[in-house]
Amino acid sequence: MANDAKMSPESSDGWSISRSMLLLAGLSGLLIVGGVASYLTIFRQKDEPTIDSANGTVSDPDRRDRSQADTLGVQAAVDIAEGTGLDSPVAVEIPGIDDGIGQWLQADGEQLLQFTGAVVPLWSEGEATCTEVADALSAVGDPTEIEAVALSAPDPLVADVAGGLYRTAARALLACGTGAEFEARRAELAWQWALTTRVFDAAGGS
Amino acid sequence: MPPEVRDVRLRFRWHGALLLVAILTAGYVVPASAQSSNEGEHEPISWQSAGDSYSSGEGVFGNIGDCAQSDQAYGPRAATTLAEEWTFGSVTFTACTGHVMEDFFVARGDKGSLWDWALNKQNGPERVDIISLSFGGNDIGFARLLKDCLDIPIVGDWNDFLQIGDLRTGCDTSEEDIRQRIDALLDPPEECSGSRAEGTAGYLCDLNLGHRRGSLIDAYYDIVTDRLTTGGRLYVVGYPRLVAPLDEWPGWIKIDCEEILRGDSERLGRLADYLDVKLREAVDRANEALGETRVVFVDRLGHYRENKAELCGTNEDWINGLAIDRGEGLNFRPETSFHVNAAGHAATAGKLVEQVRATFAPQPIKRCGGVSAVGVEYQLPTQGAWRVAESGDGGPGVVHLADPNGISSVGFRIRRGSLINETLNEAGVGHTEVVVPGATRAVRYLPPASETGDGLAEVVLIEAGGTTIEATAYVYIEDLERFSPDDLRTFLDSLCVNPAALPEPQTLPDETATTAGRDIVITDPDTHPRTGPEVVFHTPDNNASCVLWEDSFICDIDEFNWDLPDNYLQDCDNGVVPPEEYLDSFNVRVSGSADGADFTCASSFVGLTYGIATPTPVEVGDSVTFAVTRCKILADGVQCRHVTGRGVLLTREAVQFS
Fold first, then answer.
1. H-run or E-run covering B633
2. Residue B1 — pLDDT band, cuts 50, 70, 90?
3. CB-side exposure of B282: number of CA atoms within 13 Å?
4. Which among B334, B359, B384 is the end of a domain?
């Protein structure tokens, strides 16, 4: 595992449309999460993005508001991820990511961005969205396809977090209908989602 | 797609290989350029790389064949490295994915056992200097255990996850259960009749080692005693942890490592540690049983730990995570997952090379010279006037040397087939593996001493060119003042073989293979009807009879359809009696001992002299073994052999000495 690369600060430069789209799509799921609803209302009022949650895409998002939405979404996920008992995903130091990963995410890895957006309701809204999320994910790609794309990421860090997101999403779906067990898996998914979002952000900005 | 697809994806190889590519059946070839250095300074080294998928190279991208072999696997790689400084005679590669310890001894699939595969299809020698292997992982069902730990089934659609209704929570098999399986490798609590390789024996069963059942320790013991040369070494390579300890995981990996959940990774780590400890113990106990250090443990777990090379560790991974192919495009091969990759094999090869250098010494070249006859070179004892007393007369491949002033002798004879094991079994004595140039195997042993103590003998058995050369040095006790036993032993020490020059060996019809019967082993003649310290029996048709003593035997025959030699009875005290007349009163007698078998004088029929007491009852097909002689009762006669292999076939239709 090439995780000995030097550390570099995250950057917000070079946002890709696709990544922003998925974040915004994911945030649509936060509307019913009371703690963050007001922020999202402001956000939505300002930009009025058109969200296609099935595909995890959104039209013409504003760059500044994307950053804001990203921050808000991660914070919401962090709150839910407390259920894992793990250190906060925002406390994880993210090493430097290979150049060109942002471009890869927009091209060969685009499904990962869509996938990341499509799973948001599962951790943000909970068990009731299981069928809805499964349908949305199916529109992105079948499970083996998504896992293969994740593992084929040219940067090992990106492969690690994307693979982890695939697995935590799969485990959450497997736990649908189990109540307490689902909640544990939901927290893990939220943790992994927040981390993945941060990494994708860093990748896009590098 | 049903969730059971996971079983395909992460199924490790459990069934034998049926198809092997030609390059592998021909054996691994050490680069010729690497064989030239220092050539001639030691006997060429032979090496067999056996083992399971952690030895075959299953995790190396580009591995080939049903055995998933790669020339980058640690065994062939280490041999190639050492070939830069040592000369290699043969390097065979039999490691095969999914295999267990039993597969080394017992056939699975059409290639036979791993040992036979090397011997018969890769032209390996019957004894090798170095065997390296890893076994144990499949013996405890590790692949299945790991598969159970992976909790995400493969499905065709995300909605399938919702339908499964079987929430997996990681490893299903208890840690204690696996520990018991590991313990059972060393001390099997169950005596079984099946085979793990075939799936007919459980994890707590003893192992099928071919000619016997036993433990992993017994397996190591048998490999050393039955497959290695005198100075040979067995290198047992351990297994690494798959996943680094949790505190070494990078910050962004928290939930799982390559689908192995946090808790399960620690559990698997503890089990890897335990397996490592027990493999070391097995090696130690095997060495204790052997009385010397012939088995060497190669610490792979510790080496990985030192380099933090496990999955989710802080350095380069020496193990694959989840992987799906080996470089064959659409040919899906998930077995490459969680196996040692090329970097890991390179590291282990380096470790193995260190161990071999530290513990194995190539045999120095033995200088041959002296007298050469029928493909065997030898030097005569320095004391005495030794001359060939019998060569040609005794048949092709027989050289018998004697000093005219004594009874002692040295000599050899050549027999068809590889007979060392058979001879040793018949003799029931201990032996020492020795090096004889040109031989595929050689042993040295002391035949059982005669009760009368009238001589000392020592034997070297040599297998070469499909034959067995039986060389004997015999010192008659009354010759001890003239000949030193040590001097006679120089004859045995000096032997060299040129397999290409060996003659067609003597053929002794062996009718014993055609009949089956009881194996009557008489350890105490007092328990059998007798008239003296001997064992007597008559053939069922009463036409032949034998007496077996502690160090020799005689057999008589009454009616026969072959001609006596012209010189029969010439040396008898009553040799004036012509054969025809003699035969009217007596029978024909042969005798056998360490010196061989031949006609001898008969003063009466064995049946009269020794048959007064009730003889040991025998049937056609029975074998009678007493002291140094083993006789087979045939339909029309008898075949008796001294432990040296010398003996006679005595039937109505033939007499043949060997």
1. strand B629-634
2. very low
3. 31
4. B359
Average pLDDT over residues B231-239: 96
Is the pLDDT at B188 greater than 90, yes or no?
A: yes
Note whether B451 and B492 are same-domain residues.
Answer: yes
| Sign of the alpha-carbon dihedral angle for B265, B271, B274, B279 | negative
Beta pairing, strands B432-433 & B519-522: unpaired
CB nearest A134 (choices: B159, B314, B324):
B159
Task: Report CB contact under 8 Å: B159, A131.
Answer: yes
- Tell which of B1, B149, B152, B158 to mutate to test the A interface (max A CBs under 10 Å): B158
Residues of B in contact with A171 (CB under 8 A): 151-152
- Out of B156, B162, B312, the one facing A142 most closely (by C-beta) is B156
DSSP output for B162-185:
HHH-----S--S-HHHHHHHHHHH
Q: Which of A114, A137, A168, A171 to mutate to test the interface with B (most CBs of B within 10 A)?
A: A171
Residues on chain B touching A133 (C-beta within 8 angstroms): 158
Work out the number of other CB atoms within 10 angstroms of the CB of residue A99.
10
Q: Does B332 touch chain A (CB under 8 A)?
A: no
Helix crossing, B342-359 with B74-82: angle to 10°? 50
Q: Is the CB of B252 less than 8 angstroms away from the CB of A191?
A: no
Q: Residues B109, B205: one domain?
A: yes
Compare CB distances from A134 to B161, B252, B322 and report the shortest one's residue: B161
d(CA B418, CA B641): 17
CA distance B486 to B482: 12
Q: How many CA within 13 A on the CB side of residue B175?
A: 12
| Residue B79 within any structural domain of the chain | yes
- Read off the CATH number of the domain in which B277 is found: 3.40.50.1110
CB contact under 8 A, B316 and A1: yes
Residues of A in Cβ contact (< 8 Å) with B162: 130-131, 134, 173, 176-177
Could you report the predicted ipTM of this complex, rounded to two decimals? 0.73
pLDDT for B398-412, tens place per residue?
676 777 777 777 888
pLDDT exceeds 70 at position B574: no
**A60 vs chain B: nearest CA distance in angstroms?**
29
Q: Which residue from A21, A173, A50 is spatially nearest to A112, judged by alpha carbons?
A: A21
From A41's Cα to the closest Cα of chain B, the distance in A is 31
Distance of CA B69 to the CA centre of its chain: 24
Tell me the shortest Cα–Cα distance from A91 to chain B, in angstroms: 9
Indicate yes or no: CB of B154 within 8 angstroms of CB of A2.
no
Same domain, B495 and B528: no
pLDDT, tens digit, 9 for 90 and up, residues B283-341: 999 999 999 999 999 999 999 999 999 999 999 999 998 766 555 554 556 788 899 99
- Which helix H or strand E contains B630, and what residues bound it? strand B629-634
Structure tokens of A9? 């600060």
Interface touch A144/B312, C-beta < 8 Å = no
Check: CB of residue B397 under 8 Å from CB of residue B503.
yes
Same domain, B409 and B282: no
Chain B CB contacts of A192 under 8 Å are 255
Residues B117 and B156 in one domain: yes
Nearest C-alpha neighbor of B98 from the set B76, B61, B65, B62: B65
Contact B159, B174 (CB under 8 A): no
Q: Are B467 and B417 in contact (CB under 8 A)?
A: yes
**What is the three-class DSSP state of B364?**
strand
Residues B61 and B104 in one domain: yes
The pLDDT tens digits of the residues spanning A128-147 come to: 999 999 999 999 999 989 99
What is the distance between the terminal CA atoms of chain B, rounded to a whole angstrom?
A: 71
Nearest CA in chain B to A81: B255
pLDDT level of residue B8 (50, 70, 90 thresholds): very low
B260: which chain A residues are within 8 Å (Cβ-Cβ)?
A: none
